[in-house]
């Protein structure tokens, strides 16, 4: 994989990238002439005070609240830039919607990483794809010793999450930050490891109707790594309470404790947490010794296509892992769509792709290389990326010693997924597609969302996401699971964020509501807008134009004030 060191010229970076792309053997598409999107990952200034927007069309007056979004917003300190898109400093955004009008503000998270980098005007703290170089002001011996320091970043740039009524921004280390959802001011740095024995947690928790939160995080002990299911109670014991009362519900040993699987999220049904142990592996020895060898964290992550994928089910009430393991061929997933139980089966849907190819293509240089007039080379890189496609597994729950072997246990009508019992504790599964062939014309689908408030852990008909005809999403898609037909919002040179569904008042149908998405463009300065779509028809209702530039971000939530 490619790792670009600080100070390397762009011409030499370009040469290395061409060599890397040419060395790849697998091509999934034959796209040519993709447009330049490098401005989408450029550093911007924060907008700490609310500014008005220009509304065109109609923003429904029943929407009361704010869309909170998170993502990287600063990619350079001094003459050093980050090597990977994931590494940029967290920039929080707030689109406040009241009475059909919208205001916008943004603020950089005042993490220790941000403050230390800003004070020195250089990259002090290592990130996922960037290894911070030793301080040139230190003597040789001090610089040598600094290579033995392992400091996890607190640059929480992935998502907004909610625990006990408070909003936090999160990444995947042990640090999260409590923030004021109105002003976006950083209030408190919170360390998961002070409350439970974990070394991090995902930025995608799930919630029961009463507000109980579930999450997952790894721990690294003398006996190796463990996957942990986390439960956080819904209520606070006092004004200073944050993660008090959190507990580890269950610990699961990896197949290889020195090389646990990477996971970005997990699934949850009414009674089970669904953990997918996939063959994206983390070589802990390489990661721990990375500073000594000059390697960033992402160079310790690799794909092992010879290992099967394993589904683990954990009972939410007892905290016990179910004895039956569900296996599938090697696959990878970033985000789960939904999971629910029905007639003795657990149905789990997710967007599946070749994760590692995507991971290694999101280097900062691969975005910035587009300043050269060689769109074919960038298209060649895109063509090496598999498409993220929505698929479903059907897991039979009632496995016993009487269950017949070597026959398909999936008796659901109109389902092509299979589940074959190999032994009394092992079922091999294949997926069914939740799409038609025409979805591939839009680059597949990622950033899936549903009507979470009413249909999380329940049977559902619709899901929403971004189509990926580029390195980032370039369309919004609404998929009908029953017909496998979809509706699309797409306009030239416009790149939408993940869609967020908001339920309308007195909603009766699953898709009674609106979709919010932040639209950015690389071809016109300060032309961002908040898009509002009718979730039923997928037609535009209105947009709120924001006179600032916003980089392409990750995730967000709607904070209702109604």
Automatic annotation (TrEMBL):
<comment type="similarity">
    <text>Belongs to the carotenoid oxygenase family.</text>
</comment>
<dbReference type="Pfam" id="PF03055">
    <property type="entry name" value="RPE65"/>
</dbReference>
<comment type="function">
    <text>Broad specificity mitochondrial dioxygenase that mediates the asymmetric oxidative cleavage of carotenoids. Cleaves carotenes (pure hydrocarbon carotenoids) such as all-trans-beta-carotene and lycopene as well as xanthophylls (oxygenated carotenoids) such as zeaxanthin, lutein and beta-cryptoxanthin at both the 9,10 and the 9',10' carbon-carbon double bond. Through its function in carotenoids metabolism regulates oxidative stress and the production of important signaling molecules.</text>
</comment>
<dbReference type="InterPro" id="IPR004294">
    <property type="entry name" value="Carotenoid_Oase"/>
</dbReference>
<dbReference type="GO" id="GO:0010436">
    <property type="term" value="F:carotenoid dioxygenase activity"/>
</dbReference>
<protein>
    <recommendedName>
        <fullName>Carotenoid-cleaving dioxygenase, mitochondrial</fullName>
        <ecNumber>1.13.11.71</ecNumber>
    </recommendedName>
</protein>
<dbReference type="GO" id="GO:0042574">
    <property type="term" value="P:retinal metabolic process"/>
</dbReference>
<dbReference type="GO" id="GO:0005739">
    <property type="term" value="C:mitochondrion"/>
</dbReference>
<keyword id="KW-0443">Lipid metabolism</keyword>
<feature type="binding site">
    <location>
        <position position="335"/>
    </location>
    <ligand>
        <name>Fe cation</name>
    </ligand>
</feature>
<keyword id="KW-0408">Iron</keyword>
<keyword id="KW-0479">Metal-binding</keyword>
<keyword id="KW-0223">Dioxygenase</keyword>
<keyword id="KW-0496">Mitochondrion</keyword>
<dbReference type="GO" id="GO:0046872">
    <property type="term" value="F:metal ion binding"/>
</dbReference>
<dbReference type="GO" id="GO:0003834">
    <property type="term" value="F:beta-carotene 15,15'-dioxygenase activity"/>
</dbReference>
<keyword id="KW-0560">Oxidoreductase</keyword>
<dbReference type="GO" id="GO:0102076">
    <property type="term" value="F:beta,beta-carotene-9',10'-cleaving oxygenase activity"/>
</dbReference>
<dbReference type="GO" id="GO:0016121">
    <property type="term" value="P:carotene catabolic process"/>
</dbReference>
<feature type="binding site">
    <location>
        <position position="555"/>
    </location>
    <ligand>
        <name>Fe cation</name>
    </ligand>
</feature>
<feature type="binding site">
    <location>
        <position position="264"/>
    </location>
    <ligand>
        <name>Fe cation</name>
    </ligand>
</feature>
<feature type="binding site">
    <location>
        <position position="204"/>
    </location>
    <ligand>
        <name>Fe cation</name>
    </ligand>
</feature>
